[in-house]
Amino acid sequence: MAMEKLELTNATKQRSNMQRVLGRWLGLGTIALSATLSCHSIAIANPTPTASESPTPQVDRHIAQQITQRIRVREVWRQVYEQLPDLPLENEYVQLETGDVDAEDTLISRLIRYHVYVKGRPPQYRLDWKLTLADYLGANDLMFEGVYPGGNEFESNPLYGDREAIADLSRSQRDELVHTLTSLFNPQYLPLLEAAANQQEEPTSPTPERLDRNPPRQPQTGDAQLLLP
Q1: Are the C-beta atoms of residues 114 and 146 closer than 8 Å to each other?
Q2: pLDDT over 70 (residue 227)
Q3: pLDDT bracket for residue 37 (50, 70, 90)
């Protein structure tokens, strides 16, 4: 009888131990399962960007715009001289490396590069071009030799000659230069000017004369008596 009680007690202890171990394993499994489900939910909430959602096209578009702008900056000066052939070229400077004269490096090409790259001003606004010309005339920002376009490429810095060339232009020539540069970089500039001019030329309707329905009464004999107290 005592032996049976001892075996029963041992069996009960083993069953309890097995239940505790099983409970621990189940708890660990639940934690692992929860962590797995959490990671899976995070992966679903933040999926890997597809090719269509990638920001690469925007970056490529921005790079394309920069390349287009650089091409425009390098080529617009030719169109300026085509429209304003009386402007000085100032293209007689000798390169340090080759010793040759660079005829493609002109006053207007350097002015445009100074405006866009050195000062970082937008090329599509008239006021910004006026500020740049004011720099050349010594009426706005200071201009420095080390950062001026062509300053480190030629035997002599073209800054001083360019400033003199701009100062020698008449006021009307400078206005034409600003107008031409703005129109070449901003396709909407000329249509806006035309719209503003047409609006100013529209005739205004004359103000109609006031017509009184009842004409004033003519003075009558005895009207002065009405003024007596």
Answers
A1: no
A2: no
A3: very low
Query: Residue 35: in which H helix or E strand, if any?
Result: helix 2-45
DSSP states along 203-218: PPPPPPPP--SSPPPP
**Nearest CA among 45, 43, 24, 106 for reference residue 73:** 106
pTM for the model stands at: 0.60
Match 């445009």 to its residue by tokens: 112
End-to-end CA distance of the chain: 146
**Could you tell me which residue, 180 or 60, shows the higher pLDDT?**
180
Rounded Cα–Cα distance for residues 35 and 43 (Å): 12
Distances (CA, A) of 217 to 12, 115, 201: 130, 74, 44
Q: Decide if pLDDT at 156 tops 80.
A: yes
Of 115, 228, 223, 118, give the one whose Cα is nearest residue 178. Answer: 115
